Amino acid sequence: MKLVYFAWVRERIGRPEETLDLPPDVATVADLVAWLKGRGEEYAYAFETDGVVRAAVDRVHAKPETALSGASEVAFFPPMTGG
């Protein structure tokens, strides 16, 4: 699966994107975040506060319980404000 990181998430992880084979037990966005946190201190730092980093699955905003089955891309980004 292709993972894309934006803004300070990208800076903390140290790369803009990567393609990974996910374990079979990673079924939701929340599962993916939990798994990524265990991949190293850079991921733990990027996702250190639960619920802050937002996700999009195949370019559609997604909640933590969103299923990853059939998805080809997950993007992570910080909350945005507008004006």
Keywords:
83 residues, alpha+beta, Ubiquitin-like (UB roll), five-stranded mixed sheet, 5 strands, 27% helix, 23% strand, Mopterin_synth/thiamin_S_b, Molybdenum cofactor biosynthesis protein MoaD, ThiS/MoaD-like, Beta-grasp_dom_sf
Describe the structure.
This protein has 83 residues and is α+β, with helices and mostly antiparallel strands. It has a single domain (2-77), classed as Beta-grasp domain (Ubiquitin-like (UB roll)). The protein is built from three helices and five strands. The chain has helices at 7-13, 29-37, 41-46; strands at 2-5, 17-19, 54-57, 60-62, 73-77. It has a five-stranded mixed sheet. The longest helix has 9 residues, at 29-37. It is globular and about 30 Å long. It starts with a strand and ends in a 6-residue tail after the last strand. The mean pLDDT is 95. This is Molybdenum cofactor biosynthesis protein MoaD. It holds the Pfam family ThiS. InterPro entries: Beta-grasp_dom_sf, Mopterin_synth/thiamin_S_b, ThiS/MoaD-like.
Topology:
Elements: E1 2-5, H1 7-13, E2 17-19, H2 29-37, H3 41-46, E3 54-57, E4 60-62, E5 73-77
Parallel strand pairs: 1-5
Antiparallel strand pairs: 1-2, 3-4, 3-5
InterPro entries: Beta-grasp_dom_sf, Mopterin_synth/thiamin_S_b, ThiS/MoaD-like
Pfam families: ThiS (PF02597)
Protein name: Molybdenum cofactor biosynthesis protein MoaD
Short description:
This is Molybdenum cofactor biosynthesis protein MoaD. By secondary structure, the chain is α+β, with helices and mostly antiparallel strands. It has helices at 7-13, 29-37, 41-46, and strands spanning 2-5, 17-19, 54-57, 60-62, 73-77.
